[in-house]
Amino acid sequence: MKPIIEVKDLTKEFRSFRRREGVWGAVQNLFVREQITVSAVDHVNFTIEPGEVVGYIGANGAGKSTTVKMLTGILVPTSGRIVANGFVPWRDRRHYTKHIGVVFGQRTQLWWDIAVVESFKLLKEIYEVSDADYERRLGIFSEILNLKNYLNTPVRKLSLGERMRCDIAASLLHNPPVLFLDEPTIGLDVVAKDRIREFLKEVNRTERTTVLLTTHDLSDIEELCSRIIVIDKGKILFDGALREMKGRLAKYNQVKFLLKDRAQAAAVDRIATDGILCDQIDELTYLMRFDRERYSNAEIIRNIVNTLEVSDILVEEEPIEDIVKRIYLRGEVG
Question: How many CB atoms lie within 10 A of CB 12?
Answer without folding.
Answer: 22
